[in-house]
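Lab notebook, design round three. We kept the backbone fixed and only want residue identities now. Task for the bench partner: fill in a sequence for the structure below.
Input structure tokens:
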């Protein structure tokens, strides 16, 4: 978590939040393995959706490997008895630096050695019947060690990459453009983004070229001038 204490005195508390990758270890932020709440091989083999979705909505097959710019329709349970359905299009994977994107945040030199920041940008559309206001889009980063990394949370606005929380009143057919921040361990790099709501779920993953962050319009204009 990155915490801003005051406009002139800022303290950054970095939390990597790396989860189990290939080992499949449990994580407290993933859903329970209660059979009533998680997909099973039986439902997958019979082509039944792993969670109930509205008529006419077809979920993307588990295990799908997509390129950046392709979309997937996913379903997950933010809490018991609540199902969210999203069309997610991961549009851009970006590498940045603390010097470029964290101006005004007091990130200690030793902390800079522990992690490297990346942004994942996505466009999402609500395909279900549930109002998903304030829900965090369930995307992890995947690093080169095949570990899953949670998005970083901020206690104040982070303008370069505002986060993956869905806006107020996010109901059926509403669309939002989001940006999530991930802090990757030293010696590793971002390789993609993935949807894996439970340890039993065969992840849906996006991969593509890692690009440098886009400069703000005002900086582009200065460069052209």
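Proposed sequence:
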């Amino acid at each position: 978590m990155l915490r801003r204490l005051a406009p002139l005195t800022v303290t950054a508390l970095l939390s990597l939040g790396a989860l189990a990758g290939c080992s499949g270890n449990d994580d407290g932020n993933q859903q329970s393995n209660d059979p009533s709440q998680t997909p099973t091989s039986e439902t997958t083999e019979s082509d039944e959706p792993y969670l109930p979705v509205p008529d006419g909505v077809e979920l993307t097959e588990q295990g799908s490997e997509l390129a950046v710019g392709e979309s997937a329709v996913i379903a997950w349970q933010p809490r018991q008895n609540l199902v969210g359905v999203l069309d997610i299009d991961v549009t851009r994977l970006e590498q940045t630096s603390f010097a470029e994107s964290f101006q005004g945040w007091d990130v200690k030199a030793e902390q800079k050695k522990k992690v490297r920041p990346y942004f994942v940008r996505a466009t999402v559309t609500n395909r279900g019947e549930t109002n998903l206001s304030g829900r965090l889009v369930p995307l992890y980063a995947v690093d080169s060690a095949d570990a899953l990394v949670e998005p970083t949370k901020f206690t104040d606005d982070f303008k370069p990459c505002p986060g993956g929380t869905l806006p107020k009143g996010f109901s059926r057919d509403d669309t939002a453009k989001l940006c999530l921040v991930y802090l990757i361990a030293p010696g590793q790099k971002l390789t993609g983004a993935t949807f894996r709501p439970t340890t039993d779920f065969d992840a849906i993953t996006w991969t593509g070229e890692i690009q440098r962050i886009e400069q703000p319009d005002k900086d582009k204009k200065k460069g052209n001038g």
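Keep this in mind before ordering anything: The longest helix spans residues 217-224.
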